[in-house]
Amino acid sequence: MIAPYFPTMVLPIYLALSFIDDDLIKASNDLGATPLQTLLGIIIPLSLPGVIAGIVFTLGPALAAWVEPGMLGGGFVNLLSNSVESAYTALKYPVVAALSTFVILLLALLLGALMLLSRRFADIGATFRVMRS
């Protein structure tokens, strides 16, 4: 399952890294920052919106995948999406509704945690202002 979801994770991160101004990295080197300090203080906070976008773009389809685990696992691998699909084919609609609600709440909780993390470590608005100019 890595092959189909790899581009949706890597491309937003690459795009976020490509928008980092080289002058910021040169300035941190001129001011005496070590490469680790440059990575932790400049590169990771400025690329965090790309990481969040990659997680959002990848996690949703990965949670909804039920064909790949069935084909690759031979029917012995049971993921959350397989449970929803088997309950749907058995016409257990309350179970389907409960599992689907659980998936939506899980995604909302993860997205909220990622937004709090990005608010703590990065300025998302500054990233979008750079993209406009």
Explained architecture:
- The protein has helices spanning 2-18, 22-30, 35-64, 67-73, 80-89, 93-121, 124-132.
- The protein is mainly alpha-helical.
- It starts with a helix and ends with a helix.
Could you give a quick summary of the protein structure above?
With 133 residues, the protein is an all-alpha fold. It has 7 helices and no strands.
Query: Helical region count?
Result: 7
Order of secondary-structure elements: HHHHHHH
- What is the gyration radius calculated from CA atoms? 20 Å
The separation of the N and C termini measures 37 Å
Uncertain parts: none
Sheet having the most strands: none
| Number of E-state strands | 0
Q: Report strand %.
A: under 5%
Shape: elongated
> What is the averaged pLDDT score?
83
**How much helical structure, as a percent, in the residues?**
over 70%
Class per helix and strand makeup: mainly alpha
Supply database-style keywords:
83% helix; 133 residues; elongated; 7 helices; mainly alpha
Describe the secondary-structure layout.
Blueprint: H1 2-18, H2 22-30, H3 35-64, H4 67-73, H5 80-89, H6 93-121, H7 124-132
Helix pairs in contact: 1-3, 2-3, 3-6, 5-6
